[in-house]
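Record 1 of the preview.
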Amino acid sequence: MKTFSILIAKLAIILGHLFHRGSSLPGKLALKIDKRILKKLKYPPLKLIVTGSSGKGSTSKLINDVLIDNNYTVCYNSAGSNLKYGLTTACLNSCNLRGQINKDVLILEVDERYVKEIYQDILPTYLIITNITKDQPPRQHHVDLILKEIEKNIPPQTKIIISMDDPYLRNISLALSNEIIYYSIAQNKYSYQTSLFDNLNIYYCPKCGAKLKYDYYNFETLGKYYCPSCDFKWTTPTLIGHDLDLEKGLMKVFNENVSIGGDMLFNAYNTLASFAFLKAVGLIDHQISASIQKYNHNKNFEFIKNNKLYKALNCKAENATTYNACVYKVYLDPDLKDVIIGWKEISRRYNHFDVSWLYDIEFELLNNDSLNKIYAVGIDKENIKKRLLLARIPEEKIITADLLDEIKASVEKSAAQKVYGILNFDYMEPFKSTFKENVK
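->
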């Protein structure tokens, strides 16, 4: 059964390449033949699972690229299918007919709701949890549910890598006895003393329930915290990113200048998670920083046209935290600006029209004199407008449109010095094609 299952999957993979089909079908066929096929494979000694609400794709890819750059062989679900069938396809693609994956490392980016189902089959050496935030409400429901799903069945020998700055993830240390490797971003020029975000993921002590206090915030509830009623508090982690400079896209780790692969705070956190794993498995600091410099690339883009800066910020729809990160970046810029918000579709995975997550975004931060106009574009333009009005942004500053082309002339003629697009991935290329024409 095992050999036949592997053979059918490999044939399906070859046919998939020929006909440009997706990465899930071979795994689906293999599991129909042998539903325990993952349990029967022989894996590399070093196995990493990366999961979380956001950032798992970029984190796992960076680790894969750095390992390959340092002469490791890797089995990695690079096609991005992070559910059961896609993961099975990736593993079967790398194994021989006896089920042996002859690689140095296995890296799997895994959906946070599915991860509990593969722990016992694969027995990961390391588990990275990037974050757990409000995400895809109709599917994920609540952060506590996601946390419990991730905690289920974690083998006791698995080492867990998480951020010390995230008090919610510290629930893991209260529930499990696994070894935990922590990382943190030190107080920096973007940190602030008083909370700017009302719709937070957690601001109560996971140990006793008292409201947490902060020495400083890096973003939302990330920062240096302590409980005034018990011993729960931020403690010095294994890795700390110092001297964060988002404009330059750099921070310092163990005296190495490390590229963060962008100009957003979550880029820095994802890079630190990657660095923590790479150091734990034996790479030296200079090797890690040199390889990260090669492969950690910014997914956002910017260009100048007619002396106006256009900047597109890649957001994940249904995830208020990624939108808040972009809103905070725009808030920090004092120049007169136009802001464009929109998407073609909320999700390609399922049909629904939930926009509740819009009310967890701190659009109130945009309501200041530096905002020239704000454009709500796409299928939910009216819902976006309603939320902006609730943030007390003047109605005369809000413009709605079905398509980016409809606002092009208005944006290009406006008095704004900068144009920020806070966009779902499906509007990144349209933003570029709409506004960048004739730019060399």
